[in-house]
């Protein structure tokens, strides 16, 4: 029983330490980057158990705010190769190992 409690405590500590957003790559302007990053964090926190709903929330908000044709991928352990419009890509990590990729392609 003590091992289970220790494991959960270590996992909680790890998630708390890695709960900040970490931008891996972006070419967005500063204002758009900050808004997109905050939106991604909000969506991932709101739908912490459902990545599909979080991605849908991000996509719909980006479409309304910055025009249509935004795409969002959220998950762990994936690779990608995409074509995107210049100054419309954000690739970040949140919560340690959860990756979020947001890009515009028309």
Give a description of the structure.
The protein is elongated and about 50 Å long. By secondary structure, it is of the alpha+beta class. 46% of the residues lie in helices and 23% in strands. Strands 1-3-4-2 form a four-stranded antiparallel beta sheet, covered by helices on one side. The termini are far apart. Helix 2 runs antiparallel to helix 3 (51-66). The mean pLDDT is 88. The chain is built from three helices and four strands, in the order αβααβββ. The relative contact order is 0.21. It has one domain (9-104): Protein Inhibitor Of Neuronal Nitric Oxide Synthase (2-Layer Sandwich), CATH 3.30.740.
SSE blueprint and pairings:
Elements: H1 2-17, E1 22-26, H2 30-46, H3 51-66, E2 70-75, E3 89-94, E4 98-104
Antiparallel strand pairs: 1-3, 2-4, 3-4
Main location: cytoplasm
Family: Belongs to the dynein light chain family.
GO molecular function: identical protein binding
CATH C-level class: Alpha Beta
Task: Count the E strands.
Answer: 4
CATH superfamily name? Protein Inhibitor Of Neuronal Nitric Oxide Synthase
Distance between the termini: 54 Å
How many helices? The count is 3
- What is the structural class? alpha+beta
CATH fold-level topology: Protein Inhibitor Of Neuronal Nitric Oxide Synthase
Instruction: Report the helical percentage.
Output: 40-55%
Q: What is the spatial order of strands in the main beta sheet?
A: 1-3-4-2
Number of domains: 1
CATH architecture tag: 2-Layer Sandwich
The largest β sheet comes out as: 4 strands, antiparallel
Shape: elongated
Unreliable residue stretches: none
- Give the strand content: 15-25%
The radius of gyration computed from the alpha-carbon positions, rounded to a whole number of angstroms, is 15 Å
The topology string of helices and strands comes to: HEHHEEE
GO biological process, one term: microtubule-based process
Keywords: Cell projection, Cilium, Cytoplasm, Cytoskeleton, Dynein, Microtubule, Motor protein
Pfam family, one: Dynein_light
GO molecular function: identical protein binding
């Amino acid at each position: 029983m003590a091992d289970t409690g220790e494991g959960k405590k270590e996992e909680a500590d790890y998630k708390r330490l890695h709960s900040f957003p970490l931008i891996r790559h972006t070419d967005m302007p500063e204002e758009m980057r900050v808004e997109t990053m905050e939106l991604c964090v909000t969506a991932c926190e709101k739908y912490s158990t459902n990545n599909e709903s979080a991605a849908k929330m991000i996509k719909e908000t980006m479409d309304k705010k910055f025009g249509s044709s935004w795409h969002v991928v959220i998950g762990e352990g994936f690779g990608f190769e995409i074509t995107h419009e210049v100054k419309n890509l954000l690739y970040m990590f949140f919560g340690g190992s959860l990756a979020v990729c947001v890009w515009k392609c028309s």
